[in-house]
Amino acid sequence: MGEHKDRMLRGELYRDNDPELIAERRHCQELLDTFNATAAGEDRRRYTLLTELLGSIGEGSWIMPRFQCDYGHLIRLGSNSFLNYDAIILDCAPVTIGDDVSIGPRAQLLTALHPMEDHELRRQRWETAAPITIGDNVWMGGGVIVCPGVTIGANTVVGAGSVVTRDLPEKVFAAGNPARVIRAL
Asked: Which among 138, 179, 184 is positioned nearest to 157, based on CA atoms?
């Protein structure tokens, strides 16, 4: 494993233009091109492609095309979970999605972070990443954005269009920008 990939996986500053990372993203994009070009009814082929792309996928889980991610192998999708159309996962850090999770269309799970205070580091394309964890039986409405480092507790519902900037506890309904807990469930 090269220096920048190792740094990325440790959550340290790394350069995304490292040749090893570029090659991994290209391989991921090739698999995604094939996945996203599948025809309606090719469920078995889609699942087979997802088993090659993702770090793991549980039984009964599926993702609707069009799906986009950076690496694929850093995504763990539990059993009986569903990602609707146009999901985007920037998986520069691990993304763990539990069992029985439903994620609405055009959701974004974004692990990538760029330096805010050090303008020169940002100009030189240094970045970091922080993992995202989605607990079991979470329902996220359409267009939800989950920011780096966030954990969403089990049995929580996130309203459509919400931007989740910090952890949400289990068994709550949260919504807004930034998302806030509206009530217990």
From this structure: 138
Angle between helices 19-36 and 43-53 (to 10 degrees): 170
3-state secondary structure of 136: coil
pTM: 0.96
pLDDT tens digits, one per residue of 134-170: 999 999 999 999 999 999 999 999 999 999 999 999 9
Q: Which two tokens stand for residue 136?
A: 């079991």
Examine the residue annotation and report whether 114 is marked as an active-site residue of this protein: yes
Catalytic residue, chosen from 4, 73, 114, 119, is 114
- Residue pLDDT, tens place only, 20-44: 999 999 999 999 999 999 999 999 9
Tokens of 144: 């939800």
Helix (H, G, I), strand (E, B) or coil at 24: helix
Buried b (16+ CB within 10 A) or exposed e, 97-130: bbbbbebbbbbbbbbbbeeeeeeeeeeeebbbbb
